[in-house]
C-alpha cells in the first residue's frame, strides 16, 4: 500500500482539523442562537409584565380621579406623589395605543390664535401645551411635575376673573364635581372667550345633551368634531353665571374605557 507523502499527510491533517473546527464553530453558533432566543423570550415576558403593571396602575388611578371629588383626588395625590408620576407614565403608554394624540390638535388650534391671547390649561400634566406655543399659558394640575406647572385644584385657580382668552380641558374633565371645573372656566374667561374640550367619545352618553347642558353654564357651542376616538368641541362664553351655580344641573361623564 502506497504511503501518503509527508506533505499530503500534513494537508490531510489540516483538512481534518478544519472540518472539526467548522463543526465546533457551528455548535457554538447554535448555542449562541439558542441563548439569544431564551434571552429574547425572557425580555419579552419582562416587557409584557411591565406593560401590564403600567396599564393596571394607570387604570386604577384613573378611576380614583374620575369617581371622586377633586379635593379628595388632590389629597390622595399629595399623599402619594409617586402615584401621579405613575399615572403620567401610564398616560404616555395609553397615548401610544391611540392613532392620534388629541393634544396635538389642541396645540395646532392655539397656534392659529393671536399670540397676545392668554391660555389656561386645566389638567396640563407636564405642560406640553405651554412648551409648544408662543402664547402665555397658565398650566394647572394637582401636582407640579415641572416649573411650568402650578399645583392646585382646578376648581379654584389663582387666575383673576375675566383674565384669559382660552381655557383648555384636554382629557382632563375628571371627577365627580365637573360642575366646579366648568364654573371656574366661566369665571376666568373673558367675555366671548373660548372653552376648548377634547374628550374620548365613549365618555358621553349623548354629546348633544352635554352641549345643551353647557348652555346653562354660560357657553355657546361653536364647534363639534369627531376625529378617530375623540370629540373636539369649542364653546364661546356668552354670559357669566357666578350667581346661578347652586341651581345648575350636574355635569356627568362616564369613566374612561380602555
The run of helices and strands is: HHHHEHEEEHEHEE
Radius of gyration: 30 Å
Report the span from N to C terminus: 83 Å
Q: Note the main sheet.
A: 7 strands, mixed
Structural class: alpha/beta
Number of helices: 7
What general form does the structure show? Answer: elongated
Mean pLDDT, as a whole number? 85
The residue ranges in which pLDDT falls below 50 over 5 or more consecutive positions are 45-51
Oligomer: single chain
Strand order of the largest sheet: 3-2-1-4-5-7-6
User: Roughly what fraction of the amino acids lie in strands?
Assistant: 15-25%
Helix-residue proportion: 40-55%
Tell how many strands the DSSP assignment holds: 7
Short description, anyone?
The chain has helices at 6-67, 70-79, 81-97, 102-111, 128-132, 178-188, 207-215, and strands at residues 118-122, 136-141, 149-151, 164-170, 189-200, 219-227, 230-237. It is α/β, with parallel strands linked by helices.
